[in-house]
Amino acid sequence: MDVSKAIRARRSIRKFTQRRIPHEDLERLVDYARLAPSGMNKQPLEYVIVDEEEVEREFFNYTSWAGSVDWSPTEDERPRAYIVILYNTAVERVTVEEDSGLAAENIMLGATEMGIGSCPLGALDEDGIRKLLSIPDDRSLCFAIGLGYPDQSIQLEDGRDETDYWIDDKDVLHVPKKPVEDLLHVNGW
Ligand SMILES: Cc1cc2nc3c(=O)[nH]c(=O)nc-3n(C[C@H](O)[C@H](O)[C@H](O)COP(=O)(O)O)c2cc1C
User: Fold this and answer.
1) Measuring from atom 6 of ligand 1, which residue has the nearest CA?
2) Domain count along the chain
């Protein structure tokens, strides 16, 4: 899959088949993440793969899903793995937020190419996750990415007047995106 196709095909997936992701594929995604740009090349980010069934099942309890709609994945729709993005507070803080977003996009585009669906997860119970994964005090949580094989139809919509996504009566998730002419300025405002 070329990059432009992956950019268009990547959507936040919130329903997954229960097929497990090979562990080496998850490690490959972390390899893509480590190659992302970082401010002054400080590389403050570290990653935890969560794919052991017991841990992955409990991890779900510390996540929140689909803030725009009153819906959450059922037990047989949940992700089968997560990659948690952390930063090392001992490393000089330059552009941690930007770095984590760029690393996450590498993970999500790489996953798309591999047929794996992903959803960035910022609404996390940090205390629960810290305890579950024994995260040391000098590592801080950026966010996590839920991963699994997609089991959801998603349609992009013209989002000029709408940013909330919605699910229709055929269970299709509609995701509005603003048109480029509303966002783009060329050589000035
Ligand atoms: C930093 C960040 C945090 C997010 N956190 C959550 C989350 O906690 N739960 C969730 O269901 N979706 C979460 N999302 C997914 C967004 O809702 C999603 O990106 C948006 O609806 C647009 O859909 P798209 O990713 O398919 O383009 C998050 C997205 C970003 C960028």
Assistant:
1) 121
2) 2
Same structural domain, 99 and 129: yes
Q: Are residues 112 and 164 in the same domain?
A: no
- 22 lies in which domain range? 3-152
Q: What is the 118 CA–ligand 1 centroid distance (Å)? A: 10
Distance CA 52, CA 64 (A): 20
Residue 85 to residue 30: CA distance in whole angstroms: 10
Handedness of CA 123, 129, 135, 136 (dihedral sign): positive
pLDDT digits (tens, 9 = 90+) for 11-38: 999 999 999 999 999 999 999 999 999 9
Taking the CA of residue 14 as reference, the ligand 1 atom at the shortest distance is: 11
Q: Does any ligand 1 atom lie closer than 6 A to the CB of residue 64?
A: yes
Q: Which atom of ligand 1 is nearest to the CA of 177?
A: 27
User: Measured from the CB, is residue 11 less than 6 Å from ligand 1?
Assistant: yes
- Ligand 1 atom nearest the C-alpha of 165 is 21
Q: Are residue 181 and residue 116 in the same domain, yes or no?
A: no
User: Model confidence at 140, in pLDDT bands (50, 70, 90)?
Assistant: very high
Put the strands of the sheet holding 45-50 in their side by side order.
45-50, 81-88, 139-148, 117-121
> In this predicted model, what pLDDT tens digit does every residue of 126-138 receive, in sequence order?
999 999 999 999 9
